[in-house]
Structure formats: C-alpha cells, structure tokens
Design a protein that fits this description.
Elements (H helix, E strand, L loop, with lengths): L13 H13 L10 H12 L19 H19 L1 H6 L45 E2 L4 E3 L10 H19 L2 H4 L5 H5 L6 H12 L21 E3 L5 E10 L5 E15 L11 E13 L13 E10 L22 E7 L21 E4 L3
Parallel strand pairs: 2-4, 8-9
Antiparallel strand pairs: 1-4, 3-5, 4-5, 5-6, 6-7
C-alpha cells in the first residue's frame, strides 16, 4: 500500500507513521488545543480593542471621590471653635478690638477700635495683683510703650527724630515708672528733660513740687505718678502699661510728639500685716503728654530738652477729693466715696481720646464711676 508523500513526494517509514498515530491518540505537550467559547470571546474583544490589556477576570473599581475640601473646611472650623473657647479675647482682637490672651499682647501701633473684652470676675491678690483685669495681658513697664518708626520731619532728619522719640519715651518712663518717683521723691531725671527756658512749665514745677496743698492746675499728678509711702506701697515691682508715641510736624517746624499711655499700679496698704489675702487696689492712670522738640534756630531751648505743649490725665482709684499731690487709693472705703452715676468711665478703654476734664472728679465734687478696675 502506498503512503502519502511529503511536499517532495517522498514516502514516510512504517515506524514514523506508527508513532504519529500513537501521539494523535495520546496527545503531546505542544499539541494545539481548541480554545473554549469564553476564551474566544475574550480574544475577539481584545482584537476589537487592542489597547485594553485587562484579563477577563480583572475588576477595576471606580475611583473614590476625594473630599479634601470638606475635610479642610471642617478642620478649620473645629480649630476656630477651639480658639474662641480658649482665647476669646485674642480672637476679638482680630476684628479691631483690643483683644486679650494668656500671654502679653502685641505692641499697640494704632488706636484700638473698642475697649478690651470682659475678664473673669476675679479679685486681685498680693500674689496675682492684675488678676481679673485686662492689664494681666499687658506688657511690663517700659515694654508696653510703643514708639512709631522714625522718618525725617520738620527740622529733623530721621536719626534726630529717632532720638527725640527715644528721649520722649524716657520722659514717660521717668515720670510714671521710676520707683523713687512712685515713692514720692523728686522726679529729677524727668525734670532734666524739660526745657529750662519754658517759663510757664518751670513755674508749674515749682508750685507742684513745693506746695503741700496744690490746686487742680498745679497738681503734680498731671505729670508724675506719686504715692505717699506711709499710706500705700506697690505690690511687687511690676507696673503694667499700654500706650504709644506718635509724632507730626508742629509749629515753626518743630517735631511734636504725643504720648498716650495707661499705667496700672497695684497697691496695698503700707501699714499693718495684710497677710496673703490682703487688700489690693489698682490705681489706673491714663496720661496724655504732648511734647515739642523745637528748632533751636527759632526757639530758645537747650540740647536734648523738650517743651511741653499740654498734659492731662484720667484716673481711677486715685482719689477724688481736693488734690494732695499724691494718689490716694480708697483702701477699705470704696463704698463711702461719692460717685457720679452720670459720669462713667472704663479705665481700660483706649479707643477714645483722653478726657480733658482731668478725670479725677465730676463737676459737683463726686468721683467719676469706673465700670471696672
């Protein structure tokens, strides 16, 4: 019997034919396999969409939407609520008020838009003399007095203006914070900064510091803070302050500096054993002093001295009877003072100018009423 030939017509041996039949029945490792219907469908889909590489069992879930904006908004809102709860007065300050916080406030560079927020109703103590007062957040001493940046003004260049501002601040410190002056001693350093050729001021100084019965016009408290050492003493060595110095060109090209500073003096009776719960009163003084640094070519003056243009103050818990030349804290007698309910003042409110009445008494002789101390 003939066998089928190859392409060249050659025959196949009996052994090769027998092996072919056996392998056809048993199958070989590389023998072609008929694909299933599912596989053919996948192959057809891949042929129609050659860029798609995913297998027939793969699953690509939908990408979740990112809600970062909502998360950030929620986080900011939560932080804002926390800030209001922990630092309510500082938050109020962000919106134009003289806001408060547990630490010292930033320097006051402009007049605030409103009074400081209310503080917890806590009584001042010898250990915490500023407790319950906005002053607890104010800077200590000279650090609370801000000086505006210097630039050439009037007859002075920028460096001269900077020196005038520095010396003006020294005057406010020497007259309102010097411990010797607070004990009633003569304000020697402050007087040395005043123009000795300004006759009206020199007459005021002689009358104010030599008379035991000063008048409202010659009261040394208009310029200097003083307590009788036998009656009152400071609690600790810290006086809280808040204020600023500004300037402009004045008459005849002078540099006119205006100081607007509030001083808070915690005091206790000088005699007797006050104990840990002793009485503490805060005498609060807001003083405005306008100083002129005159051109020596136009005004008779001495180097590094200033001329006074005006000076006035508002005062709380410093006495409201006839002037004595000293602050008179009302120890144990606050309820006995005559008060003028029509004239009320918040001594911590720096949003309005200093009252020109002097702030010590009302027209009928009664004390002004402080809304807080």
């Amino acid at each position: 019997m003939s066998r089928a030939g190859g392409q060249d017509g050659s025959s196949v041996s009996d052994e090769e034919w027998e092996r072919f039949l056996q392998e056809s029945v048993a199958g070989t490792a590389d023998a072609p396999v008929e694909p299933s219907a599912r596989a053919r469908a996948v192959q057809r889909r891949l042929a129609e969409h050659p860029g798609q590489q995913a297998g027939w069992r793969t699953y690509t879930p939908a990408r979740p939407r990112r809600r970062t904006g909502w998360y950030v908004t929620g986080l900011v809102a939560a932080l804002a609520l926390l800030a209001v709860a922990v630092f309510p007065h500082r938050v109020a300050g962000w919106f134009g008020g003289d806001g408060q916080a547990g630490e010292s406030l930033a320097a006051q560079t402009e007049r605030p838009g409103q009074a400081p927020g209310a503080e917890p109703a806590l009584r001042a103590t010898l250990a915490e003399p500023f407790r319950g007062s906005p002053a607890v957040h104010w800077a200590d001493g000279a650090a609370g007095i801000t000086v505006s940046p210097a630039k050439a003004t009037g007859w002075m260049d920028a460096a001269q203006v900077a020196r005038a501002l520095r010396r003006s601040k020294e005057f406010m410190v020497d007259s309102g914070l010097d411990p010797r002056v607070l004990r009633g001693e003569r304000p020697t350093k402050a007087i040395a900064l005043l123009n000795p050729h300004q006759k009206d001021v020199q007459e005021y100084l002689r009358a104010a510091l030599s008379s035991s019965t000063p008048t409202p016009e010659t009261d040394p408290l208009l310029l200097f803070s003083r307590f009788r050492p036998e009656r009152a003493r400071l609690v600790g060595d810290v006086v809280k302050t808040r204020g600023r110095l500004t300037y402009r060109e004045g008459k005849r090209g002078a540099v006119e500096v205006t100081a607007d500073v509030t001083f808070v003096y915690p005091v206790t009776p000088a005699t007797g054993d006050s104990g840990p719960d002793g009485e503490v009163i805060r005498t609060i003084v807001r003083r405005e002093v306008v100083m002129s640094w005159d051109d020596p070519a136009k005004v008779i003056t001495e180097p590094d001295t200033l001329s006074l243009v005006s000076y006035t103050l508002d005062m709380t818990n410093g006495g409201c009877a006839a002037p004595t030349g000293y602050f008179v804290p009302p120890f144990g007698a606050a309820d006995e003072q005559r008060v003028d309910a029509s004239h009320r003042i918040d001594p911590y409110d720096r949003s309005e100018p200093v009252a020109r009445s002097g702030g010590t008494a009302s027209k009928d002789g009664g004390c002004t009423t402080a809304t807080r101390s």
